[in-house]
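Researcher: We plan to redesign the surface later, but first we want a full-length starting point. Tokens attached.
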């Protein structure tokens, strides 16, 4: 039996007030890979993420998650996806533990893994502390714990190391590696910090001016000399 890919986009576009800002995009992510999503400011990365996570609808084309398209099937498939937004969405008046418990109730996810998640993101000692007293780095680690609730098969991360100090950045990096290695979780990670992205990505999805410039394995970045060089080559219209 062939396992459905975690994500496929078929001719996806997005237009605002008659102006197309994204697409058409055809994209397929293979299971068990870590995809780095890169592009200049305004390239369409955020719009692409919103369409994948369901907070925006494409103007045309279709989104397929784990073989499901549209309606109830797509809604059910999104339960297999975790999302870490670029800004914290935690409830400030609740503790880290309570935040995770609330999300479990909202999403129908078992709460049995909360202790392990708090430990994994380095918040086990702050589980009862209210989030409003957290540093930015602590909030980002909580956002990551929320994204990993329920052992999702696909995790979308938007600027995951924003606000983190060097130690926190390394912790996030190692956690992504470990979850990917041990669970086979697929990641789509958008980041402007290219050297850090190069530490975890197995492949890169490159977008520029609303178009897909290329999807390439990380080894091609090494062959190009740097991730920046690869990006420049693709955007200028080189290999695709």
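Model: Full-length starting sequence:
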């Amino acid at each position: 039996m062939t396992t459905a890919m975690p994500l496929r986009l078929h001719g996806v576009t997005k237009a605002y007030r008659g102006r197309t800002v994204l697409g058409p995009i055809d994209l397929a992510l293979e299971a068990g890979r870590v995809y780095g999503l890169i592009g200049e400011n305004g390239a369409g990365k955020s719009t692409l993420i919103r369409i994948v996570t369901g907070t925006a609808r494409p103007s045309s084309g279709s989104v397929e998650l784990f073989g499901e398209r549209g309606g109830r099937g797509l809604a059910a498939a999104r339960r297999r996806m975790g999302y870490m937004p670029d800004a914290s969405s935690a409830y400030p008046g609740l503790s880290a533990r309570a935040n995770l418990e609330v999300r479990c109730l909202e999403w129908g996810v078992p709460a049995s893994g909360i202790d392990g998640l708090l430990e994994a993101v380095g918040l086990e000692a702050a589980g009862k502390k209210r989030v409003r007293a957290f540093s930015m780095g602590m909030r980002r680690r909580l956002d990551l714990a929320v994204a990993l609730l329920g052992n999702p098969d696909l995790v979308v991360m938007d600027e995951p190391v924003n606000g983190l100090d060097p130690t926190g950045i390394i912790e996030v990096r190692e956690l992504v590696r470990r979850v990917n290695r041990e669970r086979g979780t697929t990641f789509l990670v958008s980041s402007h910090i290219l050297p850090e992205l190069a530490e975890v990505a197995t492949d890169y999805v490159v977008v520029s001016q609303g178009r897909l410039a290329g999807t390439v394995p990380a080894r091609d970045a090494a062959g190009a000399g740097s991730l920046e060089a690869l990006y420049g080559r693709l955007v200028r219209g080189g290999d695709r």
